[in-house]
Amino acid sequence: MSERAAVILAAGQGTRMKSPIPKVLHKVGGRALIDHAIDAAEGAGCTRIVVVINNASPAVAAHVTARLGAGTTAVQDPPLGTGHAVLAAKAVLTGFEGDIVVTYADGVLPASAIAPLFDLRAGGADVAVLGFETPAPGAFGRLVLGEGGSLERIVEAKDAAPAELAITACNSGILAAPAGLLFDLLGKVGCQNAKGEYYLTDIVGLARAAGLTVRAVFAPEDAFQAPNSQGELAEAEAAFQRRRRAQLMDSGVTLVAPETVFLSWDTEIAPGVLVEPNVIFAPGVSVDTGATIRAFSHLEGAVVRSGAIIGPYARLRPGADIGEDAHIGNFVEVKKVKVGKGAKANHLTYLGDGSVGAGANIGAGTIFCNYDGFDKYETHVGEGAFVGSNTALVAPVKVGAGAYTGSGSVITRDVAPDSLALERGQQLERPGWAAAFRARKLGEKAARK
Asked: pLDDT (tens digit, 9 = 90+) per residue, 73-105?
């Protein structure tokens, strides 16, 4: 198999987004569009990736470098079309002799749609083009096909004749060719067109004129999500969510009201999990089989083990690790805490930084007081411990295995295993005080009238 590389075009300004955030850094499924493009290239077997950017978006350059390392970007300046953009990557790929696929950074195309291009190349096509069929081709370039599925040329909509505009086979802009051939053809592309730009698609006609084989392969229309506005970004998000929900349900996950559940690009939910309505899975969540995620819960950067019950109205933040058969109930927030098997925190509690041992019970209103305004400290509750309601555990502190804390206590020192810790002011009682108070207040009220 020939070595594979990808040139990802990310030099567009994205002005229609009307946002200070570069278009390719907008997110679908909690992941930047540029990362979706890189994921697809890597998934299709590309070992070299070059992202073509513009000088006006240092944030994009920083993002790509942070992910792929130095020497993985090329600058197109000034922007003179897609063909010109690909040529900008030539110097970065000096010495590369394998196949190059050209893709775009503003879409959510899966690797499964790109891989067939390399199959065409292996089957003898000199240039392989990715297309799609749509009943409403609009401004997309048209694929003019010949006998046997060969591709004769690509016509941009602005340059197309009426008969060509009627064609429903459309160009995605994605193609693959050997590195040497690709850059040789691009060097011959002119700019005699309605926009005065160097079109990448012109290499199809040049390849045909040279007697080379050009073929097209098609992917489903809904595989192409390339938003150019905030409205289209929302549509891309909706399409992503529909696909992910369907994938999960097909795998055996129960979504009671799927249209109300929102997933991220890396959400992992095992078969046999029940997800109730109005649940959000932010990035970094893994849920094991047999768990239940109840309504109106929000999970991010968390692990939920088999048989655990989360919610309703629970929040799991990064670092939460909820053990087998543990319960995290309504209005409980967990951050960077490992909760042991069978432990319970069922009501109105904040657990931040530390651990809760297996079988422990955390009473309603408990707070892990983990922050002093400068640093974070840990609280550790041992196995089988019982923390009474409305207890404040001031970190750093440990509650030993089997220990109890009395309700309403502020615990500032370690509690030995199997001990009872109490911290309360003395309760005073004044007999008859309430009756005398009521009588006095009623008398004052009557006097005012």
From this structure: 999 988 899 999 999 999 999 999 999 999 999
Any residues with CB less than 8 A from the CB of 219 and at least 6 apart, and which?
109, 113, 116, 130, 131, 132, 172
The b-or-e profile of 280-302 (16+ CB within 10 A means b, else e) is bbbbbbbbbebbbbbbbbbbbbb
Q: How far apart are CA 165 and CA 294, in angstroms?
A: 51
Q: CB–CB of 338/356 below 8 Å?
A: yes
Report how far residue 14's alpha carbon sits from residue 1's, in angstroms, rounded to the nearest whole number. Answer: 36
Mean pLDDT of the chain: 95
Q: How far apart are CA 38 and CA 36, in angstroms?
A: 6
**Which of 26, 298, 347, 380 is flagged as catalytic?**
347
Is 298 tagged catalytic?
no
- Alpha-carbon gap, residue 119 to 217, rounded angstroms: 10
Separation of alpha carbons 373 and 117, rounded Å? 56
Residue 329 is inside which H or E element, if any? strand 327-339
| Per-residue pLDDT tens over the stretch 330-340 | 999 999 999 99
Question: Which residue in 101, 103, 146 sits closest to 121, CA to CA?
Answer: 101
Rg over CA atoms, the chain: 31
- Euclidean distance between CA atoms 302 and 285, whole angstroms: 5
DSSP summary character for residue 222? G
- Does residue 149 surpass a pLDDT of 80? no
Q: What percent of the chain has pLDDT over 90?
A: 85
Which residue is it, tokens 């893994």? 286
Beta strands 367-369 and 327-339, pairing class: unpaired
From residue 246, how far is each of 99, 242, 258, 289, 429 by CA, in Å? 34, 6, 9, 18, 63
| CB-CB contact of 109 with 40 (8 Å) | yes
Which residues lie below 8 Å from residue 389, measured CB to CB, with a gap of 6+?
363, 364, 365, 366, 407, 408
Q: Enter the DSSP assignment of 175.
A: E
Q: What is the pLDDT of residues 344-379, one digit of tens each?
A: 999 999 999 999 999 999 999 999 999 999 999 999
| pTM above threshold 0.85 | yes
pLDDT at 122 over 90: yes
